[in-house]
Amino acid sequence: MTAPFSWTYPTHIAHRGGGRLAPENTLAALRVGRHHGYRMAEFDVKLSRDGVAVLLHDDDLDRTTNGHGPAAARDYAELARLDAGSWHSAEYAGEPVPTFEAVARHARATGLACNVEIKPCPGRDAETGEAVARLAQRLWSGAALPPLLSSFSETALAAARHAAPDLPRALLVDAVPADWAERLRQHGCVALNINHKNATPQVVQAVHDAGYRLCLWTINDPERASQLLGWGVDAIFTDELAAIRPAA
Ligand code: G3P
Ligand code: MG
């Protein structure tokens, strides 16, 4: 029998690994986040054409790599040759698109807690949710703190639940839907992750009263971060790792 899940994630989460300080969704970003005192990182995971889970936010390669067009049209061998660092700065030239597996190994080796955002390429929601959850279960086997899986895609969340029911899940939304409690229950989630612009003290109270955690993305103003943490939210995502510092 599995022990009940206990929420012990840090309150401060480095968005896309290292926020604005490093190329998003890379191993370099995770290192920068750690350097700034962040003990938890969020990153986005999708599948290559041949089913390898990699870190990448957009459907297309153009913004964050020197590749072009849809990521879903490339095998991993092609993605592995891309430069995912030069778009950010010369310092990171040649930084690769990492596999989810490499990132998981790095996170476990360094004690970094993870929020794995399942970000499927169009039309691959169930396949991606299942693959990422299965991998996460294997890669964090025996870990004291499992990764928090989240997605805007409820199809991906449902597939993740089916593949790895014991891993904690969060439903990602922008605005708070009227039926949020029903959706969290339906997907067996432990948390609701919303756009901080839609947070109010009443939302925080209602989510907590229902027995769930509330995480907010993406806060880049230190005063707003203090306000939201003062309301008792469970975690905030930020790009501003230098300005918004986790408690020591
Ligand atoms: O998971 C929080 C946040 O990352 C969701 O939005 O577009 O930055 O992946 P996005
Ligand atoms: Mg994300």
UniProtKB/TrEMBL annotation:
It comes from the Bacteria. Gene3D superfamilies: Phosphatidylinositol (PI) phosphodiesterase. It holds the Pfam family GDPD. One of its GO terms (molecular function) is phosphoric diester hydrolase activity. Residues 10-248 form the GP-PDE domain. GO terms for biological process: lipid metabolic process. This is Glycerophosphodiester phosphodiesterase. It comes from Bordetella genomosp. 13.
